[in-house]
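EI: anyone free to look at a 399-residue chain?
SC: sure, send it
EI:
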Amino acid sequence: MAGSHRLHTPQEALEALSADLEPLPCEWVRLETAGDRVLAQTLYARHDTPPFDNSAMDGYALRAADSGRVLGVSQRIMAGQSGVALEEGTCARIFTGAPLPEGADSVIMQEEVEARDEGVLIPAGLEVGNSVRPKGREIRAGEALVSRGTRLNSAALGFLAGQGFDRVPVYRKPRVALLFTGDELKLPGEPLEPGQIYNGNRFMLMDLLVRFGAELALVEQVPDTLEAMTRALERASHQVDVIVTTGGVSVGDADYVRRALESLGELDLWRLSIRPGKPLALGHIDQCRFVGLAGNPVSSFVGAWLFLRPLLGGMQGCDEMKALPEVTAQADFETETAGRDHYMRVTLQWDGDGYRAHAFEDQDSSILRSCVTANALAVIKAHSKIALGERVRCLLLVS
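SC: here you go
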């Protein structure tokens, strides 16, 4: 496949990335550090939630059969307290979340009663279970709590904490080396000589990789020589799970990355039939996977979303990361493609009837500004002509 001169499809690239892909080993982490990590085992409820019948509001707990009468208030129960058995012909002043006392089967909210000298008048017709959250309403002990492969969001963390979990099993984060080529690249804050530019890809890709769940083990600028790149790839391959490079995978005389990779490992796929991002290279050095992105900033941006996200998601056992979510939108632009699929940077807005896709005017692969406000990629197939108002397929940029 790698030796072919034809351009490959994005689907072929995804298949190459997923070949023999298994989740990384499990590790246990404290709950406060588990946000956005992927659960490696299904966890089960340790107890009923709620663990007891409790009041859904501030009011009075009573027997529903006693409604329509004036009842004396025999006790006061706050959240975190437990009352005593309800005396016959009485009610209990109760607050939200407090357990119902034995004998009570309903709660009336405080705004619905009338205060009397001898107690409170309860309106007639109260039903059993009114304003009561029954024991086990949310989940019963032994039921599946959160399933393996779930990416833990804030609600999941709260749900687990409510069951007493302080540590959880998650897949290990993929360790990633991010290598940059290009002697013309400088770091922000350094002076620029004629012909030099600042390395915007460095900070863009560092942020995206972390958002995709990676641990950045190595970030390095590599001199533009075959020897330097070969040494850098060999060293990184012993330290990380994935090597990501930008630049050096095209066909120019100074594009050393592909040659360095082939001297150490295997090139599995090279060049895609997409715009931007044609010079993608995929391969491996022993067990370390390699993804070579194009040096143009938009190509790196699009390639990261299309290929790094599903690769890292698969290594973390997260099915939801294996493909970007899709919607269709009405195009507020016109375009025509040649021989490659075009991934246009667009901003989606909901107008009440559906999404509208607003395209940045300059879609050149060097114009990173086109990605700043983009929240989707409009996929325009090769040899297509899109008219104003036509429906287009859009991939949502959701990390």
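EI: The helical segments are 10-18, 154-161, 200-211, 226-237, 257-264, 297-315, 369-372.
SC: 👍
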